[in-house]
Amino acid sequence: MSEMRAGEGHLMVCPMVKEAMAYLLLRPFFTPKRDTTVAPAAYLEPENWTLEHPITSTLQGAVPGNGQELSPAMQPHLELENTMVHVPRVRPGDYVAWHCD
């Protein structure tokens, strides 16, 4: 193993586990009234979102046979560009445990 610092291409995580999981569980039930052509702030406003009707089985970012991929386009309220953090500096002999769920 070699030494790696933040930003050198290793694992990034979302430290807000409770909030992110609640969002991922509820996101499939909501749909935007207007698409992303509106201003970003207006797109994220609560008034722009409504319960999906009729309800579908769509899970944003999920593909059968693969893990669910998070992206700013599919999960805009998570603000992934601002909320994901790097694992601290890793040195030879360090132990980093990670699970995809």
Sequence-ordered SSE layout with sheet pairings:
Blueprint: E1 12-13, H1 17-26, E2 30-32, H2 40-44, E3 49-51, H3 80-83, E4 85-86
Antiparallel strand pairs: 1-4, 2-3
Give structural attributes.
alpha+beta; two-stranded antiparallel sheet; 3 helices; 4 strands; elongated
* Cα gyration radius (Å): 17 Å
Instruction: Please mark out the parts with pLDDT under 50 across 5 or more consecutive residues, or reply none.
Output: none
The N- and C-terminal alpha carbons lie at a distance of 24 Å
By secondary-structure content and strand pairing, the structural class works out as alpha+beta
Strand-residue proportion: 5-15%
Sketch the major β-sheet: 2 strands, antiparallel
- Counting DSSP E segments of at least 2 residues, the number of strands comes to 4
The side-by-side strand order for the widest beta sheet comes to 1-4
Q: Roughly what is the average pLDDT, rounded to an integer?
A: 83
Described by the principal axes of the CA atoms, the overall outline is elongated
